[in-house]
């Protein structure tokens, strides 16, 4: 779909900036001439909620979380 000329011609994907690069995402449909819409924010960076999820929700200690992070598990 990302390479299909029909999808490209229809504007069904958009390039959104991410950390100095771009990522291709599905675009809003339908595209309206006066209010075409678009993605302004793709969400928080990867790992932004690790503390809340691992420690608060799953009960993993800060020490365990640091160890898992150092090992590349999270």
Descriptive notes:
- By secondary structure, the chain is α+β, with helices and mostly antiparallel strands.
- The chain has two domains: 43 residues, no CATH class; 31 residues, no CATH class.
- Helix content is 30%, strand content 16%.
- A two-stranded antiparallel sheet has the order 1-2.
- The longest helix has 9 residues.
- It is elongated, with a radius of gyration of 19 Å.
- It starts with a helix and ends with a helix.
- The model has no long low-confidence stretch (mean pLDDT 89).
In short:
The protein has helices at 5-9, 50-57, 62-70; strands at residues 13-18, 21-26. It has 74 residues and is α+β, with helices and mostly antiparallel strands. The radius of gyration is 19 Å and the shape is elongated.
Helix content: 25-40%
Q: How are helices and strands ordered from N to C?
A: HEEHH
Oligomer: single chain
List the uncertain runs.
Answer: none
| Helix segment tally | 3
């Amino acid at each position: 779909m990302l390479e299909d000329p029909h999808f490209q011609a229809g504007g069904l994907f958009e390039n959104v900036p991410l950390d100095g690069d771009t990522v291709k995402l599905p675009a809003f449909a339908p595209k309206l001439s006066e209010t075409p819409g678009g993605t302004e924010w793709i969400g928080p960076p990867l790992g932004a909620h690790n503390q809340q999820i691992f420690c608060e929700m799953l009960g993993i200690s800060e020490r365990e979380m640091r160890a898992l992070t150092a090992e590349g598990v999270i």
